[in-house]
Design a protein that fits this description.
170 residues, Aminopeptidase, nine-stranded mixed sheet, 34% strand, globular
């Protein structure tokens, strides 16, 4: 199976909505992606193409982290979705690795994710808790993680993570 990971295009939008609806079994994530795109709140969006099928999609959006006195930018990973019939075949992992590899060239060195604590550590994510980084929403500490794409990117920073308001609808 040849998987092509590439930036999304306008021609992919209908397929991307379909991928999110099928992967999550609801419309919330598809609406989130549509809203973030409409509000120009996407840093990076990639698709996984297998033959002529868009089998997966990943989106990275801006987040801010604030300690009350200072605010700095970071990136939020998600949502990431793979069509059910293509899951467990490395497509999601390929999307995540490709996205993380591209972000430093775009000027980003810190990525935040709310995700499964048994899955994301393989990509370098670890709990935010020891770093004094929390989300403004109360979530299980082990599921809220970060990855420094550049060693030392946190530089002793601490604070609350703020996602785009559209995430409140998910």
């Amino acid at each position: 199976m040849d998987i092509i990971i590439r930036p999304e295009t306008a021609a992919d939008i209908t397929a991307i909505v379909h991928v999110h609806q099928r992967a999550f079994g609801r419309d919330n994530e598809a609406r989130l992606v549509t809203t973030l795109r409409a509000e120009n709140a996407i840093i990076l969006a990639l698709v996984a193409q297998v033959a002529e099928t868009i089998a997966g999609h990943i989106l990275f959006s801006p987040v801010t982290i604030s300690d009350g006195a200072t605010v700095w930018p970071a990136v939020g990973l998600g949502p990431v979705a793979v069509l059910p019939e293509w899951q467990q075949q490395g497509i999601g992992s390929s999307l995540i690795r490709a996205g993380l590899a591209k972000l430093p060239a775009l000027g980003y060195d810190l990525v935040i994710v709310l995700g499964h604590p048994d899955y994301y550590p393989r990509f370098g994510f670890r709990s935010t808790q020891p770093y004094g980084i929390r989300w403004e929403v109360d979530v299980p500490a082990e599921a809220f993680m970060l990855a420094e794409l550049t060693p030392g990117a946190l530089r002793g920073r601490r604070g609350l993570v703020y996602y785009h308001p559209a995430f409140a609808e998910v």
